[in-house]
């Protein structure tokens, strides 16, 4: 039997390490756990703690290939973060000049949700608890 306890981490490859680091640490508030520069790969790896439960691994590599995202390319669709108040979260992001889509209602759960993007265009969903 295949038994999974939880998602351990989400790995993201960015095109500009400093820009993405600022986005995930300073704007979204994720706590850096460990940062390493791997000289043999000319690559940074930054482990970020999300709400003391989950981790994001932020990687940089020289000249990463661009991944198609829109319209609905095959592969990872998006990552989603649960928030308590979506209006406050959207307002915070917009005050930091982040474009956020209109808040919508999930027709199945009747919960509010919206999307914005990281510096590389990775779709990020906000989903109200």
Automatic annotation (TrEMBL):
Record flagged with keyword Metal-binding: yes
InterPro entries, per database record: Fosfomycin_Res_Enzymes (IPR051332), Glyas_Bleomycin-R_OHBP_Dase (IPR029068), Glyas_Fos-R_dOase_dom (IPR004360), VOC_core (IPR037523), YwkD-like_dom (IPR037478)
A Pfam family that the UniProt record links to this protein: Glyoxalase
Annotated keywords: Metal-binding
Gene Ontology molecular function, alphabetical: metal ion binding
Gene3D superfamilies named in the record: 2,3-Dihydroxybiphenyl 1,2-Dioxygenase, domain 1
Residue ranges annotated for the VOC domain, each copy included: 6-129
Presence of keyword Heme: no
NCBIfam families: PRK11478.1
Protein name: VOC family protein
């Amino acid at each position: 039997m295949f038994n999974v306890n939880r998602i351990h981490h989400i790995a993201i490859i960015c095109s500009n390490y400093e820009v993405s680091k600022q986005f995930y640490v300073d704007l979204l508030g994720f706590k850096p756990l460990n940062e390493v520069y791997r000289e043999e790969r000319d690559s940074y790896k930054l482990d970020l703690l999300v709400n003391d439960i989950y981790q994001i691994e932020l990687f940089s590599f020289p000249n990463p290939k661009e991944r198609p995202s829109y319209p609905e390319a095959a592969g990872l669709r998006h990552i989603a973060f649960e928030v308590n108040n979506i209006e406050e979260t959207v307002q915070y992001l917009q005050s930091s000049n982040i474009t956020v889509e209109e808040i919508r209602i999930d027709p199945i759960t009747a919960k509010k949700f919206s999307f914005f993007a990281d510096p590389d265009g990775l779709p990020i969903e906000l989903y109200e608890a």
